[in-house]
Design brief:
Length: about 150
């Protein structure tokens, strides 16, 4: 989560929601829902942004990712928050200035843009990059967003 202050972005919170890998899928999805709801409550989010779905390495991974994504979207919708989605290329362009930036470039730029002094985990940097992308797109008409 970030907060936009004019042209600057401030890091509010980030991390990884850890689920019990050995728990049945319904229990993990419920835990994800509860954890996300708690974060949205704690930080009083006013919007949410996700990276558009990408291809998974195998069918099982894609199915589990789809279930988790559905839980995330439902948690956001339950709160009445607007949801925005951005392609990986839009995220790379907004954060690094090029749609072909690699993960390390994105992580470095996220740290610079948020004045974050400690190393970011890959998932953490990815999520913050999507938040920065949304903050960059706020106020730009949808037709001009490259959709």
């Amino acid at each position: 989560m970030i907060r936009r202050q004019g042209n600057r972005h401030e890091h509010v919170a980030s991390g990884t929601i850890r689920l019990k890998e050995d728990a049945p899928l319904p229990e993990r999805l419920l835990a994800l829902d509860r954890a996300l709801d708690a974060l949205l409550t704690e930080h009083a989010a006013d919007a949410a942004a996700l990276e558009q779905i990408f291809s998974a390495k195998n069918a099982r991974s894609a199915l589990v990712l789809g279930h988790a994504r559905g839980v995330i979207i439902a948690a956001i919708a339950r709160r009445g928050l607007p949801l925005f989605e951005y392609t990986p290329a839009q995220v790379k362009q907004a954060v690094a200035g090029t749609g072909r930036a690699d993960k390390q470039q994105i992580a470095r730029m996220v740290a610079v843009l948020l004045n974050h002094r400690t190393a970011l985990q890959e998932d953490q940097a990815d999520a913050l990059a999507v938040a920065i992308t949304h903050a960059a797109f706020v106020g730009i008409p949808e037709a001009a967003r490259g959709r």
